[in-house]
Amino acid sequence: MSIFQKSVIKTYLSGIDREQLEKAYQIFRKNYSYEKIEIIKKLKEEEYQDGFLRDIFVDVLGYTLKPEDNFNLVREFKNQSDSKKADGAILINNTAKAVIELKSTKTKDLKTVTGQAFNYKNNQPDCKYVIISNFQKLHFYIDYANEYEEFDLFRIIKEDLKEEFELLFLILSKDSILNDTPEKLKKES
Predict the structure, then answer these.
(1) pTM: predicted TM-score of the whole model, two decimal places
(2) Helix 162-172 and helix 18-31: axis angle, to 10°?
(3) What's the gap between Cα 149 and its chain centre?
(4) Residue range 44-71, pLDDT digits in tens
(5) Strand duo 95-102 + 129-133: pairing
(6) In the predicted model, what is the mean pLDDT of the chain?
(7) What is the C-alpha separation between 67 and 94, in angstroms, rounded?
């Protein structure tokens, strides 16, 4: 279920630094090699959460994970109104811009996690984006649970699916989230 029109995506992709995009893609392919995918499939949720955030969000998408200086990505982000915690969050000035809910590959239907993830979003007043992943599939939402972009991270390491990686990078890279590119894409679509 696509959120964005292809023509709008194409326009925005034309403005991306191709060298930066290629570098990110090569890191992604290394971090999600076929050998590593086989290991990830066997891991429990808590065994790979930190690894996933580092492999995808830090190494590929450009975020800085706490406790590093000037961090914009955290693990275990607590709701403002109760003691529940999202598995991660992307922050601007210590305020959640996106919440991240992670499950293991044993969770086949990510829609079963949508309510939990949106509960975290709804407890963060300035949060616009929700990211749900089982380490293989990744769903990206803007504001509401009825539309999302889906990425199969195990498949987009294939060279013929590089366009899917380009869209992933376009909407989820640090600069894109911090500058609200996904919201702009949606409005223009």
Answers:
(1) 0.92
(2) 110
(3) 10
(4) 999 999 999 999 999 999 999 999 999 9
(5) parallel
(6) 91
(7) 13
Question: Do β-strands 137-142 and 129-133 pair in parallel, antiparallel, or remain unpaired?
Answer: antiparallel
Q: State both tokens at 25.
A: 């893609």
Pick from 123, 112, 59: which is nearest to 89 by CA? 123
Cα–Cα distance measured from residue 97 to residue 136, given in angstroms and rounded to the nearest whole number:
23
Q: What is the DSSP secondary-structure string of the chain?
A: ---S-HHHHHHHHTTS-HHHHHHHHHHHHHHT-HHHHHHHTT--HHHHHHHHIIIIIITTT---BTTSTT--EEEEEEPSSSS-EEEEEEEETTEEEEEEEE--TT---GGGGHHHHHHHHHTSTT--EEEEE-SSEEEEEESSTT-EEEEETTTTTSGGGHHHHHHHHHHHSHHHHHTTHHHHHHHH-
Gap between the Cα atoms of 90 and 160, Å rounded: 30
Q: Which of 87, 56, 62, 83 is nearest to 74 (CA)?
A: 87
